[in-house]
Hints:
By secondary structure, the protein is of the alpha/beta class. It has 2 domains: about 220 residues, Spore Coat Polysaccharide Biosynthesis Protein SpsA, Chain A, CATH 3.90.550; about 180 residues, Hexapeptide repeat proteins (UDP N-Acetylglucosamine Acyltransferase, domain 1, 3 Solenoid). The chain has 8 helices and 36 strands. Helix 5 crosses helix 6. The model has no long low-confidence stretch (mean pLDDT about 95).
Amino acid sequence: MADPPLAALIMAGGLGTRMRSAVPKHFHPILGRRLVDWVIGSALATGAAPVVVVASPSGRDEFDGEQVAIAVQEEPLGTGDAARSARPALAGYSGDVLVLSGDTPLLTPELLRALLETHRAEQAAATILTAMPADPRRYGRIVRDDSGSVVRIVEGTDATSDELAISEINSSIYAFRSDALWPALEQLQPKNVQGELYLTDAIAVLVEGGAHVAAHVSPDPDETEGVNTRVELAIAAAILRDRINEQHMLAGVTIVDPASTWIDPTVEIAEDVTINPFTVLRGRTRIGEGADIHAHTVAVDAEIGKRAIVGPFCYLRPGTSLGESSKAGTYVEIKNSRIGDRTKVPHLSYIGDADVGENTNIGAGNITANYSHRPGEPKKRTMIGSNVRTAIHNGFIAPVEVGDGAWIAAGSVITKDVPPGALAIARPHQENKEGYAARQQRDE
């Protein structure tokens, strides 16, 4: 049996002045995504289609048009007006509508499905997602009748002492029947000089019209929390971090110190990987079975092979691919490079735009130099073969190729190709000037 039709409306047009930022609140990053992207992801995971984001005029081009439809709230005239703005994008749609706030990144698809189950079981015109936090603060309180139906939402600033004693609060997340939502929105009237319309008043319109309004209490009040300040942004990020780390640990990953380990939701980690403290894994990073990630490692859009060893103090930038049983060690930075199986870059090196074969050892202090002084000219690549042995303080000026089995002498800067099996020496001969130090002292 097909699921009942479901659409989602996400309000993301506000500026969020309490963030004290030139960046609109909904676009602030949190664990590799913007605030609003977490909400979009939860809405899509429920199967909602279409998903409509209500944006400001300046934010209309900030979304992926393949995932969501965009409605524009031309002026910031309140949540009720924002919901009204989405109606053209849902023209002809008949079914349930989730109305979500774009600043609630902790919201999960499971909680939204539970809200919908209550909404449909109660055959309600609207169902409010509520919570019972330890500190209700000045959130709107949910007033119910003896049957459990919602009678009204009382704003915290308007509540009496008895109403403030109510522990159930409004999360500003709702499920509506579309045939109840649009007529209720049309009846909204401004209650302030700014002419703003509030979505909570749509609940009052429905109740006054005799419609049944239900409520679903979130088991975890954290899931309904919105982000309005950078303090709250940090709190939400920590909760998301803990969720992600828990999923990896339950799937067979050892995370030595979860509180200091930050992993984006798009990272893939196989079983028996060990991640040590102060590690950051971002983007599309993938880590193979049995790899060991040491402390203070940062990996962004990198691929780490099975049983590879990384760090400590290692930076793997986008485009890095480490082969099986390879090593990228202490104070090593690798960018847009392929490192072969069992190849080691143990310490103090920068490898950028390079291809390194299997079973090669890169000595300490090696650098591939590929910068072009000509504007727009693409960077050249350095090619280092298999079974190569480089020494300390080697530089490779791209484009250059080092053949399989070659050796590089210490302190050499390689500007020409090195044949397979050769020893390349590119440095001046040592010259000792006897008595030089004494002469310098006499001249001072």
